[in-house]
Succinic semialdehyde dehydrogenase
Amino acid sequence: MSNDYTVIIVLKGEGGRKMNCKMYIDGQWVEGKEGEKLEVVNPATGDILVYIAKAGYAETERAIESADKAFKTWSKTTAGERANYLTKLYHLMIEHKDEIAKIMTLEQGKPLQEAMGEVVYGAGFVEWYAEEAKRVYGETIPASKENKRIMVLKQPVGVVAAITPWNFPAAMITRKMAPALAAGCTVVLKPASSTPLTAIKIFELCEKAGFPKGVVNLVIGDASKIGETLMNDFRVRKLTFTGSTEVGKKLMTQAGATVKRISLELGGHAPFIVFDDADLDKAVTGALNSKLRNCGQVCVASNRFYVQEGIIDDFILKMKEKLKNYKIGSGLEEGVHLGPLIDQNAYEKVKTHIEDAVNKGAKIEFGGEGFHRGSSAAGGYFYQPTLLSNVTEEMLIMKEETFGPVIPVVSFKSEEEVIARANDTKYGLAAYFFTQSLAKGFRVSEALAYGIVGVNDGVPSTPQAPFGGFKESGIGREGGHYGIEGFLETKYVSFEI
């Protein structure tokens, strides 16, 4: 534990170094003025890694002012200039991927190799939007009169407020910040309070890449004060948020006061469907990849597993054999597949869902046990990957997103039946199904009411494709050329000559 706002980061085979633990506003590293401190905890042990001074109204106001001032010049830079800054940041992230991954595992818990994969994935958004900055095109439209000309311009929306979650502390930053910067916007970013260190490291690299003062700003801490300031300030013209549907709805209401543009990536309740003509081994592997990444703490993780009745016993048997090889522990340990849950609340939700299912007749085929081995109640909560059979629709786990390593399996008879059951939810973020029928692949992918559909693919996310949900799972898309559109205004210009 450190009292000087620094934490020692030690890489494998290297000595330790002190990591900066401050906020970044107007090109300077600053501490909060109100004196309140934020504890950053290692979720695998419960140990306090560091204290960080919280931002409040004053720091957030200063960050907005800085971003607004910088926008006046950043928005006028050429696409090529913005692309060069982003390309530098991309290369720096790849160069420092070991360190970023280590920081992420310390504060978030996911296995080190998984964290490394996230850094590379997150850097991919920076690389993609460095290229996409050069592809923001306007348009000319044939006029109805010979003495008129019609032109359509694409211009940056302005200052962007970005609020990111704890489960992907690198990729969610780059997925929001990179398209905003590529479009010519400036950014005020608030990372999750439980995982600010990854954000700090990325902003260190932004500084090293040479972004001008005020273009990128980092505020850490009090969600209510930071959020209230961001939402009430008219100079903030766009909000991009990833988090729960409940918080998203509140932000949507608050955005109405100043008519901010919004992008919301919210909760999910993903179905995973296995038809009887599927490659069963591939389906089991896809199910595990979809469900157990980050200990199931993924918004697009499968939550309901529908397996056609003729193959359900074989599916469960193959799944049990695979789960025997999963190692649970600290993400820094060699060979670990599942790290800790983020905190006690996450642990209790997993426990409640399993107990509710068992009380209503579900059978535990594998796992079912959790444990606490931390130095304090702040962390050290682990749960075995748990496979449930005899699951029915009235169980809590089939109605709510678990956000943990639980696989509830239920049978179905027909294609029409399973599509109706899969769509029977207010959420519509991601869905998955496995089949070897081309015709069925088209029919089912078109029928599922979800923004992302993986066909024989348990991990479909990629920087060049649009990510986002239907219904109460969100508004807007991130990734691909779609992801930059939310940061651009469309201006119609009519000339009379």
